[in-house]
């Protein structure tokens, strides 16, 4: 027969398990949260409440706790250093060629305004804030005896240059003379019967026509910088080689004359010359005085 002490211990054990000592049924109160759904967090900086099983009531939502000098970022719910720029307005740009400073979130101080950055040879235009070419004028001498004359002027693709020329050159100095201006217009008629008269009558286009004052005659079928342009006309070209020969101009040449322009077809160096048959500058003499206005590179 079990002792009274045994039955007393058993009763305590059953009571601790939430069951009565007669029927084994639970004596714990039922949860009141069945069917209760607590509202989702209001935003990423709050944590949703939880249901109290005894009362069936959701607790209040709690804010994400951040360390000192940090605040919760609503975009991602992480704690970040609090910005000191909330009430700071940085001064507007001083002009179109400056960029306004920005506020440092950690200090609340605006950075200095920065100038609009421009490439070499360009300056910022205060009227529109656009970087534009700084225009300069250079003077050079273009000798007829040189196939191409270096100007040492460096250009970038798209640069526009304005070129003015004056003076005269002689393309047949040893054979009676063939003197032209920068447009290629004849300034003096070669003596009849001279080597110059014979050549330019029979081989310069239009052929069969004696040279006359003010006339222009082109290279025709002969090779040269610009065969279709007049003898003696001033031409321009751009080469990547600062010491270029006549064959170093993949984009060819542009006839300029006494006044004209060229748009650089590529990055490189500007060269000028006097139009004549290739490798026939041995009897050429004289030079043009040329001014070139364009970007300072």
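Sequence proposed for the structure above (297 residues):
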């Amino acid at each position: 027969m079990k002792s009274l002490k045994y039955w007393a211990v058993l009763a305590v054990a059953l009571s601790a398990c939430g069951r009565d000592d007669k029927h084994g049924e639970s004596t714990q109160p039922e949860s009141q949260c069945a069917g209760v759904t607590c509202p989702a967090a209001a935003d990423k900086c709050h944590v949703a409440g939880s249901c109290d099983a005894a009362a069936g009531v959701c607790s209040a939502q709690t804010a994400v706790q951040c360390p000192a000098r940090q605040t919760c970022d609503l975009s991602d719910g992480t704690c970040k250093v609090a910005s000191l720029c909330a009430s700071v307005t940085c001064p507007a740009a001083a002009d179109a060629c400056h960029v306004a400073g920005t506020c440092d979130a950690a200090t609340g101080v605006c950075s200095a305004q920065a100038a609009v950055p421009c490439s070499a040879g360009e300056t910022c235009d205060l009227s529109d804030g656009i970087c534009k070419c700084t225009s300069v004028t250079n003077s050079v001498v273009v000798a007829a005896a040189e196939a191409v004359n270096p100007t040492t002027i460096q250009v970038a693709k798209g640069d526009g240059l304005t070129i003015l020329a004056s003076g005269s050159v002689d393309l047949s100095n040893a054979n009676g003379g063939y003197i032209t201006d920068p447009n290629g217009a004849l300034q003096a008629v070669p003596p009849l019967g001279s080597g110059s008269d014979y050549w330019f009558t029979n081989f310069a286009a239009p052929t069969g026509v004696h040279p006359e004052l003010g006339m222009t005659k082109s290279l025709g079928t002969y090779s040269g910088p610009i065969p279709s342009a007049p003898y003696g006309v001033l031409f321009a070209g751009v080469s990547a080689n600062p010491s270029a020969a006549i064959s170093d101009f993949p984009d060819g040449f542009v006839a300029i004359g006494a006044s004209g322009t060229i748009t650089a077809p590529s990055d490189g160096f500007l060269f000028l010359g006097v139009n004549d048959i290739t490798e026939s500058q041995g009897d050429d003499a004289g030079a043009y005085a040329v001014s070139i206005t364009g970007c300072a590179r």
